[in-house]
Automatic annotation (TrEMBL):
It comes from the Bacteria. This is 3-hydroxybutyrate dehydrogenase. Belongs to the short-chain dehydrogenases/reductases (SDR) family. InterPro entries: 3-OHbutyrate_DH (IPR011294), NAD(P)-bd_dom_sf (IPR036291), Sc_DH/Rdtase_CS (IPR020904), SDR (IPR050259), SDR_fam (IPR002347).
């Protein structure tokens, strides 16, 4: 990855974000972790990543639903690492309901965490990136940035919004050594998804294997979950100097889902 980099990964105390954080640390980046897990869990993670990779690991408990906290987290990372070179906007939540029954506060929370947080963090990190002539903004969107599914109006709207934000900021920063891209995973077996499998199996009276194949992976032609490590490898590549010409791209990693 070249000279030592400072990276912020939002929502990185679990799942995809944690995998990305570990992969960036393995490349020698100092890290700002962020997420809502307990102080005990977070302390353990920081210690483990520091021990494994010898990088500086910090933690921000900033709530991604609050724009001021998002901007303060970027400012804190900038002074800790002498700049944020890599920003991965990954924190995200989901809520499933038909639109007539979709609670307005759930809509507001999803738009704030899944879309507006990326606006605030990017706006705060870009001036430093432009001044240093290097930056990587990588937004973890979803196959739902490209196609829709019923009952996910807020999530699909927010993720489509992330695709638009990605393209716009890529154009605004293209001449400054800054790239802005979105990665669009299909289904990933994070703890969040894993926890739903036994319940769905019971509710539908089918096996857990059938839930994975016929419910979760129904739209995914490979019938394989996307792996956290695969997403982390793509993010690490996008963060590298070799990816300097990839910008404004909305890249599916979805086992063929959006090819249909
Ligand atoms: P996860 O629930 O395992 O992790 C989410 C992380 O975000 C956690 O660290 C959590 O603490 C943090 N978070 C949630 N709300 C927050 C808030 N208000 N402030 C700060 N942190 C907050 O989920 P995941 O599956 O790893 O998802 C990560 C991203 O990948 C999300 O943007 C999600 O939309 C996207 N994604 C996931 C899948 C999938 O199948 N798991 C597929 C496509 C896209």
């Amino acid at each position: 990855m070249g000279a030592r980099k400072g990276a912020v990964v939002t929502g990185s105390t679990s799942g995809i974000g944690l995998g990305i954080a570990r992969a960036l640390a393995a490349q020698g980046a100092d890290l700002m972790l962020n997420g809502l897990e307990t102080p005990g869990e977070v302390q353990e993670l920081c210690a483990e990543i520091t021990k494994d990779h010898g990088v500086e690991v910090r933690y921000s408990s900033a709530d991604m639903a609050d724009g001021e906290q998002v901007r303060a987290m970027i400012a804190e990372a900038e002074s800790a690492f002498e700049g944020v070179d890599i920003l991965v906007n990954n924190a995200g939540i989901q809520h499933v309901a038909e639109i007539e029954a979709f609670a307005p506060e759930k809509w507001d929370a999803i738009l704030a965490i899944n879309l507006s947080a990326a606006f605030h963090s990017t706006a705060a990190a870009l001036p430093g990136m432009k001044a240093r002539g290097f930056g990587r903004v990588i937004n973890i969107a979803s196959a739902h940035a490209l196609v829709a599914s019923p009952y996910k109006s807020a999530y699909v709207a927010a993720k489509h919004g992330v695709a638009g934000l990605t393209k716009t900021v890529a154009l605004e920063s293209a001449e400054h050594g800054v790239t802005v891209n979105a990665v669009c995973p299909g289904y990933v077996l994070t703890p969040l998804v894993e926890n739903q499998i036994p319940e769905t199996a019971r509710a539908r009276g089918i096996s857990e294997a059938a839930v994975k194949r016929d419910v979760l992976l129904a739209a995914q032609p490979t019938k394989q979950f996307v792996e956290v490590e695969q997403i982390a490898a793509l993010v690490t590549f996008l963060a590298s100097p070799a990816a300097a010409s990839i910008t404004g791209a909305v890249l599916p990693m979805d086992g063929g889902w959006t090819a249909q």
